[in-house]
Amino acid sequence: MIDTFSRHRPLTLLATVVLAQVLLLAFQIKRENNVRLIRYWAVQLMTPLERAGTWTFSHVGGLWSGYVGLRNSRAENEHLRSEVDKLRLRNSELESRSAEAQRLETLLNFHESHPEAPMLAAQVIGASADPTSHTLFINRGERDHLRRNMGVITPDGVVGKIVEVFPSTAQVLLINDKDSGVGALFAVSRTHGVVRGSGDPEPHMEYVINEEKLQAGDVIVTSGEDRIFPKDLVIGTVGSVRPGNPFQTISVQPAARLDRLEDVIVLLSLQELAPKKTEESPAGTGVAAAAPSAPRSVGIVSDPNKFKPAPPVNKTPAPVPPTPQQ
Q: Can you tell me the distance from the alpha carbon of 25 to that of 127, in angstroms, rounded to the nearest whole number?
């Protein structure tokens, strides 16, 4: 290698001298705006390197910051998802409590509207596993003085009757069960019949002759003849009517939502559920008190006589009984 350098020493020396002269000339020569040539060359030489370095560091830095930001965003996203799940669970809990409060308020209003009738609120805790049987269980039993054949209702209408009583629970047979039957009549015409279950969601009303004019929506109430339900509790409405032999085939749409029962009322007696009356004004005024009456229950027809025409007025004076002899 030393021999090669010695052989090319003159060329190397010449190249060095030429380069030095060029640099000196570049240092001495000036371009526009008083910029020396060597500085111009230096700028032209270093600018591509600076651009490459800037591009490299900016992209590498962008990738790193994007990676760090992505990790932070992922962690924040997971945190937000967890918060959303908690809020959804809380919202569902609040909706459930609100629905329960509304049901309890409805039961309370029903009881306040009929303070003289003995009744007991109960909660549905289970249902029969047999698909052909429409029964449910409530959290009241012998300890609450329940017994068989007590009527079970809701503020909307009739539900069924108690068929089995246990120490702390009871079994209720719904009106759409195939073994169920309720004495019934039409609220307007007062025509009697029997509402029986067939295992389907809708029971049927039997023993109504074909000559009876019916239409969908006619209200059906209890007749009280079964000695289970008081008179004039709403059972439901006529769903459809078809002529039969010898009686019509009538489907009944229950007033109570039998497939969504959560709270029910057990009737402890056969006393009719007449709504609370308004107070009368003091004697001698002849004007009723202005206090508003209690709200009527949806599930009760309190005044069945309003569906009947008024009886003719008998203007013949009643006979005066004889005065007893002293």
A: 107
Instruction: Give the HSE-up count for residue 210: Cα atoms under 13 Å, Cβ half-sphere.
Output: 6
| CA 5 to the chain's CA centroid | 97
How far is it, in rounded angstroms, from Cα 67 to Cα 83?
Answer: 24
Distance separating alpha carbons of residues 93 and 106, to the nearest angstrom? 20
Spatial distance between the Cα atoms of 172 and 167, rounded to a whole number of angstroms? 15
SS3 label, residue 298: coil
Domain CATH code at residue 152: 2.40.10.340
Joined tokens for residue 55: 């591009």
Query: How many beta carbons lie within 10 A of that of residue 141, not counting itself?
Result: 20
What total of structural domains would you count in the chain? 2
H and E: helices and strands count for the chain: 3, 14
What length does the chain have?
326
59 and 123 together in one domain:
no
In the chain, the N- to C-terminal Cα span, in Å, equals: 171
| Model pLDDT for residues 187-207, shown as the tens digit of each residue | 999 999 999 998 888 999 999
Residues 6+ apart with CB under 8 A from 75: none
Q: What is the pTM of this model?
A: 0.58
Task: Assess whether 43 and 144 both reside in one domain.
Answer: no
* Close Cβ partners of 244 (under 8 Å, ≥ 6 residues apart): 210
> pLDDT tens-digit profile of 23-32?
665 555 555 5
Residue 194: name the closest of 250, 120, 112, 154 by CA: 250
